[in-house]
Specification:
Largest sheet: 8 strands, mixed
Structural class: alpha+beta
Strand order of the largest sheet: 16-20-21-28-25-24-22-23
Distance between the termini: 56 Å
Helix content: 25-40%
Shape: globular
Strand content: 25-35%
Number of strands: 33
Radius of gyration: 29 Å
Length: 647
């Protein structure tokens, strides 16, 4: 017998060799129908894998990321089986699960187009109905090489050559066998709904010197209704695309002459961004932050010392060389090294801490052109960066205060559905990180304890830490259910060590401060993009570029309309005038498309009585009021939207 420990601490005994699926069946038949994968001793695995010793066990249903990854991974194998059936001679690269589905990179004997996807889909559905089991088999390296050499699949041969003998597994579903470590569903019958979404090109192993393969993307679900909901979400996402809305609302622009991935903020976008920055500046001032400004470049040695050159050097712009052969600068990839030098400006005492330095600092990364995407993936972006230098006894309180700031921002901007992701280092691959085990353990513990005290809904992700420390990432779901990473807080024992930062303690001896990195927005570019898509361009009133538009019903009232606009702007209402020679119905439609919250109509009656007729976006007519009454209503609404922190 073996002992199985469940997430709630319950321990039960089962016969050695029992599978996770059999355990689920013993608990309830309903659970056995819904479970898709299992985590045994911290490792996600097949439900059909025998458990041979005492173990911890967590069963995963569709709601869990582990179940979805397993489901989509099996779907990629189903896609490969369908392709092998339809296109004999096809060769296979890799076919992983991804955030919203799966893909497979393949070398086809003939080119395919989007028109062929439906045929492949239908074949996948046909095969899925056969409920083909996914059979796992451990294979010696020599046999694995021989298998794919005979098939002439050089991509699998190349992958196998990099693997260690004794750790190679095959999975077979139907007539298709693949090199794969798993895990997979028990059989293909779980897959009820499939949609192949697109075709793209992808260099083998991401190397542009290798052959271009065909990448086929798809999504799959255990119910057709889920697929229908997903496709409806995609249609809504197209309407909310921040690139489309940014152009329509005249917020930002990209110019090939300026350069890919380098956004130009247009007047309305710049004003919106300034309001966001001022909003955060006010919050930071209340919390004792001091504003600093640092250069866009720094000596290469600065980033060598910090470790950023080793981490981001390959993704940075080339060094800037001056006539002095001893000088070599880099566009800064991060602000933190500069802030360390601000700290070192003068000796610090324990009485000076915590020190909180904030900066809207622009940083640069040379992203590949194929990875650029509107404002969400750019080469130059501005972080709402701050670094807190504190004593060990201040760490917990400072970390919790940053959480308060993030929660306040989310509440003000109606990001209500979010999860706090505790991003820890990969315990099995510590070479990716700098610093001692002791400091990492202290930093990770501080984050976990702070989230418990704040009662946050958390998940733990191993391997997602920054190279210098663990972090708390806020994963937000937008209005149509998509997940975005917004805001991050990081605990860092390592940069203070690398820059030899000290403060004098109560014992008159030097001590090392702890550094907290934080960026509630993340970057201004990405935050505006997500906010655009979350709101569909209908920003909160306090933030929207134009709060009201004044529309005369004919040219006779143009002067009055302009006078109303001028008065509103004096009263701190952002207003503009639509003086086009168009019918009022056309003006209303056009300005509603521009997402302007208030449409003010003026004619003979309004001019005679000093009024405006108010129409609210999406709500219709609200009657007439004086200019002062309308301005007061706007001010009240803005005050309700931006309540002081703590309320």
């Amino acid at each position: 017998m073996i002992k199985i420990t469940f997430p709630d601490g319950t321990v039960r005994e089962y016969e050695k060799g029992i599978t996770a699926l059999q355990i689920a069946e013993k608990i309830s038949s309903r659970l056995a129908q819904e479970v898709m994968a299992a985590t045994v001793n911290g490792q996600v695995c097949d439900l059909m894998l025998p458990i041979e010793q005492d173990a911890t066990l967590k069963l995963h249903k569709w709601e869990d990321r582990e179940a979805q990854d397993t489901f989509h991974h099996t779907s990629s194998h189903l896609l490969a089986e369908a392709l092998e059936s339809l296109y004999p001679g096809v060769k296979f690269g890799i076919g992983p699960s991804i955030e919203n589905g799966f893909y497979y990179d393949v070398d086809l004997p003939e080119p395919i187009t989007d028109a062929d996807l439906k045929k492949i889909e239908n074949k996948m559905v046909e095969l899925a109905r056969n409920k083909e089991p996914l059979v796992r088999r451990e294979v010696p390296k020599a046999e694995a090489l021989e298998n794919f050499t005979q098939k002439g699949d050089q991509y699998k041969v190349e992958l196998i050559q990099d693997l260690e003998d004794g750790k190679i597994t095959f999975y077979t579903n139907g007539a298709f066998t693949d090199l794969c470590r798993g895990p997979h569903l028990p059989n293909t019958g779980y897959i009820k709904a499939i949609k192949l979404t697109s075709i793209a090109g992808a260099y083998w192993r991401g190397n542009e010197n290798n052959k271009m393969l065909t990448r086929i993307y798809g999504v799959s679900f255990p119910k057709k209704s889920m697929l229908d909901e997903y496709l409806a979400m995609l249609e809504e996402a197209k309407k909310r695309d921040h690139r489309k809305l940014g152009k329509e609302l005249e917020l930002f622009h990209f110019s090939q002459r300026v350069g890919q991935g380098l956004p130009l903020w247009l007047p309305k976008g710049a004003a919106l961004r300034e309001r966001l920055e001022n909003f955060l500046r006010a919050v930071q001032k209340k919390h004792g932050y001091q504003q600093v400004i640092t250069p866009h470049i720094g000596m290469k040695d600065l980033y060598v010392t910090s470790g950023h050159y080793a981490k981001y050097g390959a993704d940075s712009f080339r060094p800037i060389r001056t006539p002095d052969e001893n000088e070599e600068f880099l566009l800064k990839p991060m602000n933190c090294p500069h802030h360390c030098e601000v700290y070192k400006f003068k000796p610090r005492s324990y009485r000076d801490l915590p020190l909180r330095f904030a900066e809207f600092g622009t940083v640069y990364r040379y992203e590949q052109s194929g990875e650029l995407h509107g404002l969400t993936r750019v080469r130059g972006f501005t972080q709402d960066d701050a670094h807190i230098f504190c004593r060990p006894d201040q760490l917990s309180e400072e970390f919790k205060k940053v959480i308060d700031i993030v929660l306040y921002i989310f509440k003000t901007l109606s990001f209500e559905n979010f999860t706090a992701q505790i991003s820890l280092r990969d315990p099995n691959n510590k070479t990716k990180y700098i610093g001692t085990d002791e400091n990492w353990e202290k930093a990770e513990s501080a984050i976990i304890e702070a989230t418990k005290e704040k009662g946050l809904n958390t998940v733990i992700e191993l391997g997602e830490a920054a190279f210098y420390g663990p972090k708390l990432d806020f994963m937000v779901r937008d209005a149509i259910g998509r997940k975005w990473q917004l805001g991050t807080i990081q605990v860092d024992y390592n940069l203070p060590e690398r820059f030899d930062l000290t403060y004098t303690g109560t014992d008159d001896k030097p001590h090392r401060p702890i550094m907290i990195h934080r960026a509630p927005f993340g970057s201004m570019e990405r935050f505006v993009a997500v906010l655009l898509e979350h709101t569909g361009g209908k920003f909160p009133l306090w933030l929207t570029p134009d709060q009201a538009v004044v529309m005369p019903i004919s040219e006779k009232f143009n002067d009055y309309a302009q006078a109303v606009t001028d008065k509103l702007n004096e009263l701190d209402v952002r207003a503009l005038t639509d003086l086009r020679n168009e019918k009022i119905g056309r003006k209303i439609r056009d300005n509603e498309l521009k997402k302007i919250p208030y449409l003010l109509i003026v004619g003979e009656k309004e001019e005679a009585e000093g009024l405006v007729s108010v129409r609210v976006q999406g709500e219709g007519d609200k009657g007439a009021m004086t200019i002062e009454q309308f301005a007061a209503e706007v001010a009240l609404k803005v005050k309700e939207e931006v309540r002081p922190i703590g309320e």
